[in-house]
Hints:
The structure is a single chain. The longest helix is centred in the middle third of the chain and has 18 residues. By secondary structure, the protein is mainly alpha-helical. The N and C termini lie far apart (about 70 Å). It has two helices and no strands.
Amino acid sequence: MNLSGFSLRRPVTVIVATLAVMVLGLVSLPRLKLDFLPKMELPFIAVWIP
């Protein structure tokens, strides 16, 4: 059973599943935390030879 065969036999199920994924994406979108400039501490090593 492949996706195209399933979609042709049960189009309503595929449409409902697609709409459910879209609604879940729209609900979760405002809850995402977006940080444009995150605070980062980059490790570094310095070698000084006099």
